UniProtKB/TrEMBL annotation:
Protein name: 4-oxalocrotonate tautomerase family protein
Annotated family: Belongs to the 4-oxalocrotonate tautomerase family.
Signal sequence coordinates: none
Domain named 4-oxalocrotonate tautomerase-like: residues: 2-61
Gene3D superfamilies hit by this protein: Macrophage Migration Inhibitory Factor
Organism: Streptomyces montanus
Length: 80
C-alpha cells in the first residue's frame, strides 16, 4: 500500500488545501504504480503544534518561518 505522511505547522492549511494534498499525492502514486494503487493509497496530513518541530537542532515556530530572510536572527549583519 503506498503511503505518504505530510507534517505541517498547525493552522497553516485549510480543508481545501489538505484535500488538494491528498488528491495530488494519490494521483502521483497512480502515475507511478498504475491505477491499481488508487484504492490502497493512504495519505496522512498531520498538523504539528507550534514549536513542536525543528530543523538542524533548532526548534522552529510559525512566527520564525514568516520572517523574511533579512529579519532572520541567525544572519550576521554582513549577510543581510
Amino acid at each position: 500500500m503506498p503511503f505518504a505522511n505530510f507534517k505541517v505547522p498547525a493552522g497553516t492549511l485549510d480543508e481545501k488545501q489538505k484535500e488538494r494534498i491528498v488528491t495530488r499525492t494519490t494521483e502521483l502514486y497512480v502515475e507511478i504504480y498504475g491505477e491499481r494503487a488508487r484504492a490502497s493509497t493512504m495519505v496522512l496530513v498531520e498538523e504539528v503544534t507550534d514549536g513542536g518541530w525543528g530543523i538542524g537542532g533548532n526548534v522552529l515556530t510559525l512566527a520564525m518561518l514568516e520572517q523574511s530572510p533579512e529579519q532572520s536572527p541567525e544572519q550576521s549583519p554582513e549577510q543581510r
